[in-house]
Amino acid sequence: MEFNHFLTAFLPDRERDHTRIYADMIAQAEAADRLGYSAVSIPEHHLINILLVPAPLQMAVRLAATTSRIRLVTAVVVLPLHDPRMLAGEVIQADMLCDGRLVLGVGRGAFGYEMGRLGVPIETSRERFAETLDILLALLAGEEVGWDGAYYQFEPLTVMPRPVRPVPIMVAVMAPEAIYQSASRGIHIQTTPLGGSHEQLLTQVDAFRRGQADAGAAGEGLRLALMRGVYAAKDERDARRVLELAYGYYKRFDNVFGGPGIVHGGMIEPLPRTQTIEELGQNLVICPPAEMVERLAGYAGAGIDELITSSNFGQPVEETIEMMHRFSEEVMPHLSA
């Protein structure tokens, strides 16, 4: 199993230096490059104070300048917000500037507040995503591509410059049936159970494996990347402190992910959760390294190719990088291929 550090951006209060969001992300990516992580992941979100990266391809290019080894993964570019004709050229350019280390993760969008205020109601995002993905794949693979669909109609055109290699593309999906359908087309998968149970995680893995098998030759070499809240704590007391931070983070996340979307001046209102902090603690992997090795062994045994570790819940970046050292030294050697 390989390990990918998720560059979560969280602005707990508006008085904090906003430039620190990206300086902290850069510092974490550089640490991941030194510490043996295989990749970092970069989100795309707008208008809110979590996951705040409006231009993930731009961030990938910046990270390529001061890292040398890790893959630079978007998790994810929100396809319904982009014209695929422009996005295709931006992806090709970014891949060149990343020296071929770019992995393009794409998704339909998750937050109704964000999508609606950008003019793409989330109720239409599934259909928009499907059409945009088909166009993007066609533009990256071929020349003189024309289209006559529900959302896009255009005469044949060729995106320039042309790709220097096939850019790896992963689709972010959570529902098992959607995972199966995408994998059966021969597409790499990113998924997550968020704060859900291990049984939910195993259902997602099973859907991927079934889709991979039904893809035939196109399924050979398909990869499953799974995101989970993971924090290698110093001890039990430290684990409890970080779990409390994570619980506060999810109060905001739930508000915009399927919730009412109550946002004031870009700041998400924390709302009460039905899931208790103890239940969340059972599902996230926030614990000392020895316990973590035992728990993550089940992930490796399930056949997950790459674990995307989401470890930023509002703590200072110095603590995150210190945690990354613990994870690299005391956890990764027991689970890496």
Q: Give the number of DSSP strands.
A: 14
* Number of helices, counting only DSSP H or I runs of 4 residues or more: 12
Strand content: 15-25%
Element order, helices and strands? EHEHEEHEHHEEEHEHEHEEHEHEHH
Number of individual domains: 1
Which CATH C-level class is it?
Answer: Alpha Beta
Mean pLDDT: 96
The CATH homologous superfamily is termed Luciferase-like domain
CATH topology: TIM Barrel
Provide the gyration radius in Å.
Answer: 19 Å
C-alpha termini separation: 6 Å
Shape: globular
Strand order of the largest sheet: 1-2-3-5-8-9-10-14
CATH architecture: Alpha-Beta Barrel
Low-confidence stretches: none
Structural class: alpha/beta
Please outline the major beta sheet.
8 strands, parallel, barrel
Task: Write a brief caption for the model.
It is built from twelve helices and 14 strands.
Overview of this protein structure:
The chain is of the alpha/beta class and 337 residues long. The chain has a single domain (2-335), classed as TIM Barrel. Helices cover 45% and strands 18% of the residues. The strands form 3 sheets. Strands 1-2-3-5-8-9-10-14 form an 8-stranded parallel beta barrel, surrounded by 8 helices. Strands 6-7 form a two-stranded antiparallel ribbon. Strand 6 (145-148) and strand 7 (153-157) form a beta hairpin. Helix 3 crosses helix 5 (125-141). The longest helix has 21 residues, at 236-256. The model has no long low-confidence stretch (mean pLDDT 96).
